[in-house]
Amino acid sequence: MKKVESMNVVPFIDIMLVLLVIVLTTASFVQTSKLPISIPQVDKDSTDSKDVLDKKQVTIAISNKGSFILTIKKSALKI
């Protein structure tokens, strides 16, 4: 009975995994551009119970050309 010789792929897979780890750790991850926004501070004493229950959801979508869409929806907080 003849022994069938085949290529051992385990070392090849080991080398490919090491190369993959090296590429992933040294790759520079691209950051999306950020828009500086100043968020106002709120005093906890000045919040009203009505303000907590009546909330407005504001959605702003900004395109890369500078145009934007502003959507305001009123929603009640369910407790």
UniProtKB/TrEMBL annotation:
GO terms for molecular function: transmembrane transporter activity. One of its GO terms (cellular component) is plasma membrane. GO terms for biological process: protein transport. InterPro entries: ExbD (IPR003400). It is found in: Cell inner membrane; Cell membrane. It comes from the Bacteria. Keywords: Cell inner membrane, Cell membrane, Membrane, Protein transport, Transmembrane, Transmembrane helix, Transport. It is a single-pass type II membrane protein. It holds the Pfam family ExbD. Belongs to the ExbD/TolR family. This is Biopolymer transport ExbD/TolR family protein.
